[in-house]
Protein 1
Amino acid sequence: MLTFKQFINELAREDVTISSTDVEEMRKRFGDKVLQMGHLNKDGSMNVSVDCIIEAARSLKADALTEAAEIINNEHMVSMLQSGESLVERVGEANERKLRQMIRNFQESDSSKSHRQWKQIEKEVFGVEYND
């Protein structure tokens, strides 16, 4: 179990990384919707926004979130309830909303902010920061 300090440090991060093994295992269980959760890296791992995970977790009831955590953590557990899959879908939906909002902000911004906002969109979509 994480200590309070460790938990706060994890929440403060921009992204968490899901290992390539875990990404593949989750794809087998939940399908390609897993790929909508974040940016897939060349090595098969995936970066997922902490904000999107929090938003998705908040959208589930406490008992459904607990069940989803158990299902995701136990590859042998099969559930007739859809909480694990629901969490995966909601993280993907939150990621899409975040990107749409970034694009809206970019389109509505003045030129002094647009370059910085474009760089944020670039990083979100491609997972890297390009030098100008």
Protein 2
Amino acid sequence: MGINVESVWFSAGDTETTTNLTDTQTGWSGDTGNWTFTTDEQVYSSQNTLGTNIRTAIWYSGADVEGAFEVQMQLQNTNTGGWLVVYPADAQAHFGTTGNTWGMGMFSDSSNHWASGNPSSLTATGVQFGNTVYAMDEGYTNNTNVGSISTSAVYAIKRSANGTITFETDDVVGYTNDETYTGDMRIGLGSAAEGVYGHYKYVRLIQ
């Protein structure tokens, strides 16, 4: 069993709980050797070039997330090049943690990037941070420019109890996944390109 939220997201009577996911490396799996967790919730991927077309990614394995939830984060600096993603727990094989897995393999339409076959049958949401911010469905579909990068903005992927998944910047919806998904999900972080690292001020789960 994972984390269970039965009520409709933010409806009357909801009790919200915030879990700081990046105050410790405990609970994270994947290419953790190329990530640093600080004592003030910051987390960042290796600032070294890992090699040609090599990326790094980690996923939260402390508990799968059920029901309605929000994954909230801020960026530490505007030089970042990272990903925040949510994906079905039973699709872990499609989540690439190293090698030439752009978008963790899940969010690319190129078989050169896939970790374990075509991810197009999944229902996943990925947000890429670079010069601008893009949200998208699995397989690079529904690709949406949701604004410029900022260290003051609060970014969030939300799922309501009916399975609708949205991406919000400062509580303003900029993207909605084309599909709904109500099964268990997982949270992942990744670097966007070789020589570019992701640097997050915090990543928190609100439920």
Protein 3
Amino acid sequence: MDDLNLIRLLVRLRTRDRVPEESIAQLGATDLRARPEATLAAIVRGWHEFRANGYAEADIYREIEARRSREYGAEPLPSDLTLESFARYRMRLEHPAEAALHEPEYVAQAVRLASRACEREFGPHGEPPGVRSMPAGHLAVLAYAVLVVAIQGLGNLGKGLGIRVAPDAWVNLALAVIAFGLAAAVFAWIQQARSGRAAAMAMLAAEIALGWLAVAHGRYTGEGMGFVEWAQGINTLLAAASLAYVYRWNADARA
């Protein structure tokens, strides 16, 4: 979810002094960034960015506050310093006339909503993407990609480049290339590289299509494909589930 859509959601979240939906729809990028809700979005995003860069939580608030104090002057921080209490303190300080945005219930919901949006980019609790911070679905897709490399990639690479020339070695090499390409694309998607999602989806689709083309080729050349067909059926289910997850995860992130 981009920052502008997040600000719109925070505006809709108001329970007092609600903004009409038609007015929200007409707000442009400049108008949205000038809204007081943009302050909340910036605070939460800043916290997650600092956390992803390895800052301790106490240091994060000091860094954010140091930047704020240069413009607004120094103020004592809340004693019970959390992201929620810090956001409420900043809203009272910078937008004193917006009483609706000082309410604890509103701030709590806004911080949770903004944090969920940021976690899709920075990982849970602001931790950089890694095995310990990745969602279970990401781990499952990564495990599938590793399995494809181990079985399909290395196995077919050995057959295609082996001392004993395999019949139609190009088929083995093509399957090996797809396996390694799939793993690279999934890794790029997890690291949120540019075009990582498109590459992961394309390679997962190619894994399904080329797998069945290889089965068809084996039938045509008279090879025994009974076990291979069964294995490709399982592989198709896993690849399709991974493809659906990658598509749904990024669709939710844009929503």
